[in-house]
Amino acid sequence: MGLIGPLISLTAGAALVPVFMRTSLAPATWASLALLVYASRALPAWLAYPSLWLALFAATWIGQKTIIPMSGPPFLVAVCFISTLMFAILVADRVLSPRFSGVVATLVFPIAWVVVEFFQARWSPAATWGSIAYTQFGYLPLMQVAAVVGISGITFLVAWCASTLAYAWTHAFAWSVVRGPVLAYAAVFLTSIVAGSARLAIAPTDRASIRIATLNRPRTLFVPGEITRITEASFAPSERERLASKLTALHDWFLDGTRREARAGARVVVWPEGNLLVFKDDEAAFLERARALAASEHVYVAMGMGTIHLGEALPFENKLVLIDPAGAIRISYLKSHPVAGWEASIMRRGDGRVPVAPTDAGRLAGMVCFDADFPEFVRQASQGDADILLVPVNDWLAVKNIHFQMAAFRSIENGLPLVRAAASGLSAAFDPWGRVLGVSDYFADGDTTMTAQVPMGRVRTPYSRTGDWFPWSCVLATAIMLAVAATPYLTGR
Questions:
Q1: Taking a C-beta distance cutoff of 8 angstroms, is the pair 429, 450 a contact?
Q2: In 171-233, which ranges are continuous DSSP H helix?
Q3: 122-158 confidence digits (pLDDT tens)
Q4: Is residue 371 within 8 Å of 336, Cβ to Cβ?
Q5: Domain spans in the chain, listed from the N-terminal domain onward
Q6: CA dist., res. 380 & res. 376, Å (int)
Q7: Residue 382 has pLDDT above 90, yes or no
Q8: pLDDT at residue 1 is higher than 80
Q9: Which CATH superfamily is domain 209-456 in?
Q10: Taking the complete model, does pTM exceed 0.90, yes or no?
Q11: What angle do CA 185, 186, 187 make, to 5 degrees?
Q12: How far is CA 134 from the centre of its chain?
């Protein structure tokens, strides 16, 4: 077939990239990577390099449109960055894998993918967004790998399958040649699935639970753009009185809703990120109202709040405030990881420590939205022996499913029940095995309140204890592979 087969493979693989970027259609990821690896290896260099990059750039542009919260040149830069990272992984596989044979040759691609995702999660503004592990949401036995080595283990298994299939393909599926790599992958994959299935099967069902509810803001109180202008304090002084009146109505909405859910049996009520906006001058009076409500209804109130400091360079305090049934403030936490761009330009950062409050409802931990996309940061909650993690969130329509699904992996990694209250997204509760206990959609018709019986207490996991040893091992393996591949050039042999 000459170039036709590899070019068809490249086209089909690239066409599936937007599918797995925007959905959790797991087979699309497996198929896309296998097709791309095969095309990368089969095409001649003069054609492989430019066609791969252009195909990945176009696919990323389509896949990330409306997901990356940027437009114009910043969006273009982000697309270039993401597509170039994928291109670099494929190039590394093309260059390095022929230096090895058998099983080792198939490991170059998954190791490289893990390393790139790991460095992105640690040091790029995107955190773990875009990890192919998240595309496996819903396949619970495979998701349990995250409890052992984090999402890097899932990424590794998906990418290793692709390189193993490509290895078999390029060797015409000759069993005498491909037997070792195929059997090695099959053994590891099947062991992971069996172990994950067993973990789910033996999960206890008799754990004590607590009723938790999440609320959401009214859809008609503010006109489009008004919440943004309040948040960044970019309105005229003459508008302050009118906007303060709207905020008072917003406060009444949340306090009345909390009272309703408490009387319906909720022990904890969680509000979404920045949903309760309040001017700094009015904050003390509002907190007194909230404390009085919590005490009178004997309920924990976890408030996603946005305190606005008028006339200051950084006007926005994005925080979680937890009030206990005695009316005492147990947590007042500032978000530590602002989203790059608009939010980072107006937000005051927290100190980077996850608060854990001992209560008669268990040890409650909290963080805000993007904080939960950093696995190493979330590990602080499990290391602090938290029993439940509360996460106020603010999403938008294009990412509502993706971000909701990402939260399930934090539950599995840390063995922690997790409750996310989402503005403009999916509010949900997960158990320590990543199973969905309850969900509500802000964009659906009807009441957007979410209620769930959440099991109390965490399940100790290897990942919560040992952290990211697996991706660091992949970093070491990469260094060794590069050294081995470079040895003939350095020694002249």
A1: yes
A2: 175-201, 226-231
A3: 888 899 999 999 999 999 999 999 999 999 999 999 9
A4: yes
A5: 4-203+469-491, 209-456
A6: 7
A7: yes
A8: no
A9: Carbon-nitrogen hydrolase (3.60.110.10)
A10: yes
A11: 90
A12: 7
